[in-house]
Design the sequence.
């Protein structure tokens, strides 16, 4: 390259193609990178681990298919862990499509755990609008908010729900959240008002906003942040799920983005040097 | 009258809800519970309102043949097909008006609603979200340029956190001895997230909370009236 030449702007289609190849290859041929388990994920694991067998636990599916890649692996590992510990899972949704997300997670896990029975080991209560007010109402009287499950079966006829009157009979709440309403509302209403242990998982992009809640007051018991959080939980459970295989692709994508940043900065540096040279030549 | 009555209701309801937080006894707790139930019922109607609005806005655009009107038509048709599938053959175990749709289940392997949801809607939604990666990659090349000390700092933190949050980042510094754990990329990333990030996030949250208190008071006292509609 001659002194005055500046690297050409790379066509965005080439960037897209490189990224596509970079992400596709690890998905086809897994590279097997290892994820270190962070303290945030370990806290979530410890909460599930320390909750006694037979407890009713609640998982709130507060997301829709757009974030399924990040949040569905979390829901599956949380349900699987709860089932392994003999806990009964109550699924609710503050997002309309959360109901289907819950059903998909249960159906996929039932292949591995065929002995788990609907109404005995798990139940799907469906969607309720209202966000934070719904959570407050659930805390006071569960049956008023969910008089029946998503199939229309009255809650009194569901075996595992017979003793569930309010949040007092819930071991912990895990919210898998892609926005509002979601985990933040559970922290403010379920933990701060009713003192229930709250944990959960969020997309990688919203993780920094939830870290202040992981504090000495245990407003939030750990946090699963993005696909990496799910992959770490899978490694704790010794499960090879979609998060573990997806992490290879995500790692490559992150490295490529860093390479693009370096390339962009090198180009900007060359432009600056050229401008300086031109102005000094004029002077 | 048109404004005074709603303002009065807002003030009264707000006062009851706030009072019930400080006095969780009769009658405030009962009234508050009643108000919560009202809220849940009213917010359910918002779903119907949303659907009606979707039909009205989109059909208007199709009728007027605005630019790219075909997309609005596709949106309307998709909405109609999903609603029809749900009404006719139901979802999950629930039957629809035309029964369970056993022949369709035999053909698709699922009820039509579930088939469309899991095989079309879910993948389209995920694809839309995944497209962000391409925009970020392109933006990284074009926009994340070091221009000042602050942008330099931001860039450095971003690169460290990005690498620290990947499996490659873990492998890059995994060879370092235990005594040097503090320079492991995931640990540096955690430090950035737990201290500078948390400090900034808390400041933002406290400011936002104070802002919400302020704007709530303005609404309760009738200073902020834009929610009533109209200009003043």
Sequence:
């Amino acid at each position: 390259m001659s002194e005055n030449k500046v690297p050409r702007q790379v066509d965005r289609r080439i960037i897209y193609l490189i990224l596509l190849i970079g992400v596709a290859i690890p998905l086809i041929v897994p590279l097997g990178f290892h994820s270190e388990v962070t303290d945030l994920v370990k806290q979530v694991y410890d909460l599930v681990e320390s909750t006694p067998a037979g407890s009713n636990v609640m998982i709130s599916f507060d997301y829709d298919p757009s974030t399924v890649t990040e949040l569905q692996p979390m829901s599956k590992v949380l349900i699987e862990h709860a089932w392994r510990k003999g806990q009964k899972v109550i699924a609710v949704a503050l997002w309309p499509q959360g109901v289907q997300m819950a059903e998909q997670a249960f159906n996929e896990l039932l292949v591995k755990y065929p002995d788990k029975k609907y109404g005995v080991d798990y139940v799907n209560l469906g969607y309720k609008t209202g966000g934070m007010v719904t959570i407050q109402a659930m805390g006071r009287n569960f049956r008023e908010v969910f008089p029946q499950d998503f199939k229309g079966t009255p809650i009194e006829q569901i075996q595992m729900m017979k003793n569930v009157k309010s949040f007092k009979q819930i071991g912990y709440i895990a919210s898998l959240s892609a926005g509002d309403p979601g985990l933040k509302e559970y922290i403010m209403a379920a933990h701060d008002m009713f003192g229930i242990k709250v944990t959960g998982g969020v997309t990688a992009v919203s993780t920094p906003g939830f870290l202040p809640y992981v504090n000495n007051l245990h407003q939030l018991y750990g946090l699963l942040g993005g696909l990496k959080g799910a992959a770490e939980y899978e490694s704790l459970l010794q499960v090879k799920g979609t998060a573990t295989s997806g992490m290879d692709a995500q790692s490559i994508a992150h490295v490529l983005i860093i390479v693009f940043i370096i390339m962009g900065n090198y180009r900007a540096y060359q432009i600056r040097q050229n401008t300086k040279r031109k102005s000094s030549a004029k002077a | 009258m048109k404004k005074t009555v709603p303002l009065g209701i807002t003030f009264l309801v707000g006062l009851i809800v706030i009072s019930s937080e400080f006095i969780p006894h009769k009658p405030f707790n009962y009234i508050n519970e009643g108000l919560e139930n009202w809220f849940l019922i009213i917010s359910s109607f918002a779903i119907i309102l949303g659907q009606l609005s979707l039909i009205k806005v989109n059909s208007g655009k199709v009728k007027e043949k605005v630019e790219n009107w075909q997309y609005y038509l596709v949106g309307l048709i998709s909405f109609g097909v999903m609603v029809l599938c749900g009404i006719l053959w139901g979802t999950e175990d629930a039957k629809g008006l035309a029964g369970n749709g056993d022949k369709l289940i035999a053909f698709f392997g699922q009820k039509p609603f579930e088939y469309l949801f899991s095989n079309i809607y879910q993948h389209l939604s995920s694809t839309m979200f995944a497209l962000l990666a391409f925009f970020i990659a392109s933006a990284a090349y074009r926009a994340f340029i070091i221009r000042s000390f602050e942008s330099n700092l931001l860039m450095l933190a971003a690169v460290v956190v990005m690498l620290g949050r990947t499996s490659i980042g873990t492998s890059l510094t995994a060879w370092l001895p235990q005594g040097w754990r503090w320079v492991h990329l995931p640990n540096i990333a955690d430090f950035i997230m737990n201290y500078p990030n948390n400090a900034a996030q808390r400041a933002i949250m406290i400011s936002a909370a104070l802002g919400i208190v302020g704007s709530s008071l303005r609404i309760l006292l009738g200073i902020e009236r834009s929610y009533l509609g109209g200009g003043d």
Notes: Chain B has three domains: 1-61, 67-133, 144-232. The two ends of chain B are 15 Å apart (CA to CA).
